[in-house]
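lol ok so funny story. i was supposed to be doing the assay writeup but got distracted and ended up predicting the structure for this chain instead. priorities right. anyway since i did it might as well share w the group, maybe its usefull for someone
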Amino acid sequence: MQMYLLAVNPTDSVTEGFLPAARRLGLTVTVLTDQPAAHRAAAPDAYEGVEVLECQVHDFRAVVARISAHRRPDAVFSNSDHLQVQTALAAGYFGLPAKDWRAALRTKDKAEMRRRLAASGLPADTAVRAAEVPAGHDPGSALDGQGIGYPCVVKPREGVASEDVVLVGDRAELVARCAQIRSRRPDAALVVEEFLPGGLRTLETLGDGAARRVLGGFRTRLSPPPYFIEERLTWDPDRSGPVVDQVLAQLDALGVGFGACHTEFVVDRGRARLVEVNYRAIGDQCDLLLADLLGVPLFELILRVHLGEPLPPDPWPAPSGRAACLAYPYAREGGTLTAAPDPEDLDLDGVRLAYRPLRAVGSHRPLHHTNRDLLGVVRGIGADQETVDHAVDAFVASRKWEITA
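and the output, tada:
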């Protein structure tokens, strides 16, 4: 069976998750990407036997043309934030299982997501006040009459990975921050929305179009304001209850139900309010930990629904007596990474630890104040949370990451 996988840059989710899963399923894989050289150079073992073709993957018409002129597809799939609409349209064109392209658009476009939820008839206290600021428009006046006070959050309308997401305290700071973002993204529309107090959590789901399973989620610790770098994610096995029901109702309003979805939300006084919906599997190696923790072939299950197979009945019993977290050492200054740990797998006090670098020694980068500043990831799984947290903290404290300006 022929699967086309749409991608921009190589990711661990693809090289360590989906490509090995496709091989285990016996699929013939063709990667369509606008960065073919990067994919051919990445993880040679993962790409062995994988065809990589250049394609303007941001244009669904180019994707359809490339596939139509090649081999008949049995599945068209992507785990990229940037390519869900294009993938849905291309899969739909060939009559294959696909996400609703309208739902993919609503989740990618943060302003449209807010408008859709506001008009959904869901309880008003779950709505988030937001204003769209088109390119070239005054951000200060965009808030007039919107009921958005300070502090508030400004972000690109179609951004990812906390890039250019910043908390602002007053109108002057809002105007200044928007000017900074526009210096890097002159044509990008922005969204300004109320700041949501409370704890940040995630919900991970997988659906086949008829049934949807809640896998669990994570509790996220962020860097100090005004930025939103993910420092740590702690496994949260909760799969039911009022908060989960509220999140699922909002996903239903957006039309989300097919394939993997990673939803970020804030809980405050029992209210679940969405921060963003990423209509793909969680990344930054959380998906690798999730598959290990649940003890199920997660990546194969995701690919199988795109091949038209139904989810098996309750394939992932909630893991009992297991705890997990991921920690992300990250850069506090720009410069060259001159020292960092090598990849490592070890057992510490009964906790299985895996460390993987996310940035190569010798690489030079400016400070982004986003997840692009992550240097590596430590994954830990053990019997209880206190022991896991202690083992992960001990590992980070005993290793050294050096950046030279």
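The mean pLDDT is 93. The domain at 129-194 is CATH 3.30.1490.20 (Dna Ligase; domain 1).
back to the writeup now i swear
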